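EI: anyone free to look at a 133-residue chain?
SC: sure, send it
EI:
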Amino acid sequence: MTLEELDNGLTKWFGLDLSKEECRGVRDRILTLFGNHVLGFKRTACSRCWTRQNKGECDPGCPYLPGTENPLEAGLGYLSRPNDVGVFPFFCMFVIPLYERETGDSGVMEMLEREFRRRWRREHGDGERRDYA
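SC: here you go
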């Protein structure tokens, strides 16, 4: 996922106007949550690293060395490079929980489930096979 895809998703799904300062603040809080996740993963991987355990020091080119301890910068840095982050899983893990926590509006995932189920039935039928005797 790229930062542009994140911005497009925030605009389309939640109606955020990222030209406004308060909306950019929401985006920064989302990236901070993600950055905390990235930094936590890097710390765990670093603590289990063979080089660190056997040599006592880190290799300077180690990908698990956190370049920064700032979660916002870590989140921005990760999404600024080619990565394996999917848009929908990212929204489920970081955006929707933040939205529910800040707005008090719960049940977003259940609403998405109902919408996907309705769309699936409309496009594929009710799931029963009727072509057999």
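EI: Residues 9 and 15 are 9 Å apart (CA to CA).
SC: 👍
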